[in-house]
Amino acid sequence: MIIKKTLDGFLNGELKVYQLKGGYRAGHDAVILASSINAKEGDSCLELGIGSGVVSLCLAHRVKGIKIIGLENNNNMIEISNQSISLNHYEKIIKVLDFDIEGNIKKIKKIKSQSFDHVFANPPYFTENSSSVPDNENKKAANIGSKKTLDTWVRRALTFSKSGGKITFINHINNLPELLYLFDRKMGGIQVTPIFPKKNKSATRVIVSGIRDSNKSIQFNDGLILNDSKGQTTKRVENILRNGDVLEC
């Protein structure tokens, strides 16, 4: 079966990424998540649900000398993410493994538990009861989870994170209470960064990060405003999306 796909530019065209033409397509959320991960040279990183690979590719482009493993169970996404990794010459940096995040943890034997400096993810934002379900199976898998999805994804992140490692999720703002509850069980130094579509508008997304086994207190950041009053992308966001600037959070 031929996969219908497009070739899209990210970071001012410096990255070229294949995406499914009719499926889930990464956008601002993926680039912003990558900008929020404060990895440094020598760090080992794990992405839960690598999808088309945009987050990991943006991170690898910004931070040299890191290693990234991406977990994914959709065959089409595995194929196109590997194509994008090869196209951008990151084969030695990013590896994709076939694994269902919500599946049997014993089935993944190629990576060790508690071995990553950074674990990051963009889990499904909705459940079938909270949102209309897309007809497209790929979009459904990316957007619609179960009532246990966030709990499972946080548990997986904790399984693979080192003590002192950082876990970072981006998700819908409505899921913030649940994320704070889940992160607080095993993490400290939790930081909450809301993402606002415009100034004086309610946040729609949020980045939550935490440090495994830390006792540090929680911090709420000012957040990120995507567009100004005229609907134009703010300079801060433009620098993230085009230049790969770091989002301090």
Polypeptide structure, described:
By secondary structure, the protein is an alpha/beta fold. It has a single domain, classed as Vaccinia Virus protein VP39 (Rossmann fold, 3-Layer(aba) Sandwich). The chain is 27% helix and 31% strand. The protein has seven helices and 13 strands. The strands form three sheets. Strands 3, 4, 5, 6, 9, 10, 11, 12 and 13 form a nine-stranded mixed β-sheet that branches. α2 (54-62) links the parallel β3 and β4 (67-72). It is globular, with a radius of gyration of 17 Å.
**CATH classification class:** Alpha Beta
Percent helix range: 25-40%
Order of helices and strands: EEHEHEHEEEHEHEHEEEEH
Mean pLDDT across the residues is 91
Structural class: alpha/beta
CATH architecture: 3-Layer(aba) Sandwich
Number of domains: 1
Number of helices: 7
At the third CATH level, what is the topology name?
Rossmann fold
**Termini gap:** 42 Å
CATH evolutionary superfamily: Vaccinia Virus protein VP39
- Give Rg in angstroms: 17 Å
Number of distinct beta strands = 13
Globally, the shape reads: globular
Query: Sheet bearing the most strands, described?
Result: 9 strands, mixed
DSSP strand content: 25-35%
Secondary structure topology:
Elements: E1 5-10, E2 15-20, H1 28-35, E3 44-48, H2 54-62, E4 67-72, H3 75-87, E5 94-98, E6 116-121, E7 126-127, H4 137-143, E8 144-145, H5 149-160, E9 161-172, H6 176-184, E10 187-198, E11 205-212, E12 219-220, E13 224-227, H7 235-243
